[in-house]
Every structure is written in C-alpha cells, then in structure tokens.
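ugh finaly. both done.
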Amino acid sequence: MLDLSNAGVIAKALEPFTDGDDPDVVMESHNHWAVGHVDGFSIRVFRDGKITDAFRKYHELAESMANYPILDESDYSNLEYESTVANIADAAWRLKGDFELPEDWQYEVYGWLSDNDCGEIENRDDQGGYPSEESLQAAFIALGFPQVETAC
C-alpha cells in the first residue's frame, strides 16, 4: 500500500510536466507475459544544460521519502482503511453463511472492531488489517446480525 500511495502522489506531482510536444516526463507502462508489468515514468534531468523543474520536483519528493516514507498520510490512511475493509470480507468467508448480513456489513464490522478490538484491524504487513474469525464472530453477534437457522 505504501508504494501504491507514494506512486500516486508522485504521478500527480509530475503530471504538469507531461504536457506538450517534448515533455520532461513521460508516463510509461511495460508488460511481458512471463514476468508481469511495471508502471513508471521517464524524467528528463537536463534541458539546455540546466536541471529541469520536473527533476527538481522528483528529487524533492525523493528527499521527502528519505526523511519519512509516507508522502501523503491521508491517501495512505484511506488505502489502509479500504484494504482492511476488503480483508474483513475475505476473512469472514466461512462465517458469511452462518449470519444474515446487511449490505455493506463489512463497514459496520470495521467500526465495531475499531471501537472494541482495534488490535484486530491493525495494519501489520502493509496490506491492511486482517481480523481473526473469532473477532469477526464477536462483532457479528454484538452488531445483532441474525444467525441463519440450519435444518437438521
């Protein structure tokens, strides 16, 4: 998530330098069937013997990351939140059939876990939080999601 967040911030900051017939920044995307793809950009460092504004902007961002790895706390936090919500839906794969879940239930569960068991949604590996099945079941019960009756 950190790389995605920072890449988005860098791309946005370099966008003004992509215009014109001879831009100082060229956005690129390369792929190969065997190894996947990579997105990035080429930056012109010198123009007419002087350092370009595009390279100065990139260097400024690189220095910022050297001092603190997150370029935009808000963007990173949003990615972290959305990843955790997606992980909640994934982690509950076995429990989903046992409860009647409302639309957007995972957001309600995130809120409950945030208030009652925040360690379960803590980001530990830059992939968002991934709560345990036990904590999800506790959230479902506390939120009053009805259990599905099973016929024996």
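ok and the 2nd:
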Amino acid sequence: MSSVEIRASSRAEAVYAQLRDDIFEFRMLPGDRFTEGEIALRLGVSRTPVREALQRLQSEALVQVYFRSGWEVVPLDFTRFDELYELRKLIEVNAVRMLCTHAAPAVDRGALARLAQFWRAPQAERLEDGRLMAQQDEAFHAALVAAAGNREIAAVHRQLTERIRIIRRLDFTCAARVTATYDEHAAILGEIQHQRAERAVLLLSGHIEESRAEVRKITLHRLQTIRTGGGSPHP
C-alpha cells in the first residue's frame, strides 16, 4: 500500500470514528439529515473519506442513504430494539443452560473462573468509566455465548450486540447500574459454576430485562433533554 493510500485510509478511519462517536453521544440525533459535503466541510476533509466512513456506518445500521437527497441518522425504533433484545435473551439463555448441563463441548472452566474473579472485585477496584464498563459488559455476555461452543450462534450474537450498542451502552451512565451489573454478573457466574441452570437462567433473564427497561428510559430522557434545549446535540 502506498503512502497516499495509507493517508486516505487513515482519514476515512478518523472520519468514521468521529461520526460514530457523534451518533453514539447524540451530537447527531436520530432522524438528522445531512449531506456528504456538509460533513466534509465540518471535518475539513474531502468527500471521499466521508463517503467511505458513511458506507461503513451504513453497514452497521447507524445511517441510511436516500438517493439524491443525502444521508440520515437512522431513527431509533424501540420495537426493533425489543426484538433484538429478545433474540439476545434466547441466545444467552441457551448458552447458560448448556454451560450448566455440560451440553457445551470443552467448556473452558478456567475462563469462567477468570470472569468471576473480575466481576467479584471489591467496590474500590471496580471500573467507573462508563465506556470501559460497556466494553466489559459486552465481553462478559459474549464470553458466555462463546463458551457454549457454537461458533455460528456466537457470530449472530456479535452482530446483534453491534446493533443494540447505541442504546445499550447508556446503561452505564448511572453509578447504581454499574454496581448492579457487577453484582448480577457475579451472581449469574456463581450459579453457572454450581450448575444450577434454572437459577442461572432466572438471574440472566431478569438482568437482560432490567437493562432493556433502563436503556429505554435513559435514551428517551436524554433525547428529550437535548430536544428541549437542555443539552447540545452538535460539537
């Protein structure tokens, strides 16, 4: 790859990262319309890296294009999010049942023990950064599914995780929810380690449902605050 191609790739990556962050932080609101030229002007780049970044965001279902009329931040569809959360719950419940009943091939018990060690950390050692916490939460749930041993199911789980990330990460903007997540993850792992399937499934299902309810409430509140002048959607 030539130096020119490397620079072009770096610019596209930088534009992608900036726009993705703008969407996740609601500086670009669901339903906002814009053109490639407007983004290029705001970020001080040509339209080529903007187009490449937008095409990548489109593949992640964060933006959509309208023929000859520009782009739009995909509006939030809570019915769709509910359906994705339901699919997520089905996948994770299945994984937990397999882990508790030895139906999963070659379960890495050492990996589960390391997860438990992280989530049982004392209060003084727990994460406070919301972004890091969101990453660790995703890693926890992905690890449960991966440990069940079905790579195709794990791939589907990764895809739906990416599709709900825009609202799911908001669950960690509240200190109480961070504390609850630590405690609930530790409890779920404890039941798995003791092979108490029904109890593990009950805890996991409640954990996912509570998260779904909280992120809906937080998302609606944040959007309402921005739209009524309590926050600025643009950098």
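summary for the 2nd one i guess: The radius of gyration is 20 Å.
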